[in-house]
Design goal:
Number of domains: 3
CATH superfamily of the largest domain: Periplasmic binding protein-like II
Oligomer: single chain
Shape: globular
Number of strands: 13
CATH class of the largest domain: Alpha Beta
Number of helices: 11
Helix content: 25-40%
Structural class: alpha/beta
CATH topology of the largest domain: D-Maltodextrin-Binding Protein, domain 2
């Protein structure tokens, strides 16, 4: 086995915090091996004043990192798993997943303590069509604005008078030590998280035996089974990581329970359902739940949502 490995990471505070966490875990497991971090700028990092719908949502935070991995410039790619498409480029594989941080979304505001407290017509910002759909499904009176920027920028805007609140992932806030800004951990009955939210995904070259051996020490088997169900659900729906699709799988006593959501751009058309089964059948649980959604009209809802997002003139705050 070679004695040094390079970890590819985006340059944001959150991405580097996550990559350093992964690096520390590997150093503890393999003290005689050297691990470094290479910062790689992605399309999503470079373009911050345009909505994801306009720049093309698929792979905007992963493409350049995967190219470096395929070329041999790095040995591991650390992703927020929710950003990683279900179909990976040929030659790459999902080598490991981390333990899961709190998967819920968080409500951030300088004036209000919860979504329920928001007055009619309140302005809430999010960069996610999934969050937009579920917010409007529960509160159709809200005005939803597009937001870009890093976690710190989003918190600053949420605490300003420009908007009444914003939605971020709890996981990122906890990892950065910014959980004091959370006004409400949004219940999953209101907002299901993105597939893989709260989990780090470690991508490797499929034929790299050394990287495979090393990354196995980082892998969480329980989370892996849950993620297989969630990603099978998303992949079967062919929604992509920027679609208005939410899912959360949880395991208890060898049983996986998977809850899913598909909604329209304005939240009026929505499907919620769930399915449980043995952990050994995790991918099949995801496929079966997706089939139920397709039978209920999910494909038509998603197609309409894509069209509505492309035509949207929503401003970016």
């Amino acid at each position: 086995m070679k004695r040094s490995f390079l970890i590819g990471s985006r340059g944001s505070d959150l991405a580097l915090t996550q990559s350093r966490f992964f690096k520390a875990a590997l150093e503890a497991a393999f003290p005689d091996v050297s691990f470094g971090i290479e910062i790689i700028k992605t399309t999503g990092d470079a373009i911050r004043d345009v909505s994801f719908a306009k720049i093309g949502g698929k792979g905007v935070f992963t493409k350049e990192i995967e190219e470096a991995l395929l070329s041999g410039g790095i040995d591991f790619a650390v992703h927020s798993l929710k950003d990683l498409p279900t179909r990976l480029p040929e030659g790459l594989a999902l080598g490991a997943v981390s333990a899961r941080e709190t998967p819920n979304d968080a409500f951030i505001s300088g004036r209000y303590h919860s979504i329920d407290e928001l007055p009619r017509g309140a302005r809430v910002a999010t960069g996610s069509i999934r969050r937009r759909s579920q917010l409007l499904n529960s509160r159709p009176d809200l005005e939803i604005l597009e937001i870009r920027g890093n976690v710190g920028t989003r918190i600053e805007k949420a605490n300003s008078t420009e908007i009444d609140g914003s939605i971020l992932a709890c996981a990122g806030l906890y990892r950065l030590g910014l959980q004091s800004h959370i006004r409400q951990v949004i219940p999953t009955s209101i907002m299901l998280p993105a597939v893989g939210q709260g989990v780090l995904g470690i991508e490797i070259r499929a034929d790299d035996d050394d990287a495979t051996r090393i990354v196995t020490a980082f892998n969480d088997k329980t989370v892996e089974a849950c993620i297989q169900a969630e990603r099978a659900f998303l992949g079967q729906l062919e929604g992509g990581c920027r679609a208005p699709i939410g899912a959360l799988a949880e395991m208890r006593d060898g049983i996986i329970s998977l809850a899913g959501y598909v909604g329209g751009y304005d939240g009026r058309d929505a499907i919620r359902d769930s399915l449980s089964g043995q952990a050994g059948d995790s991918a099949e649980i995801g496929h079966q739940l997706a089939a139920k959604f397709i039978d209920a009209g999910a494909a038509e809802i998603l197609a309409a949502a894509r069209d509505a997002e492309s035509d949207s003139a929503a401003g970016v705050v």
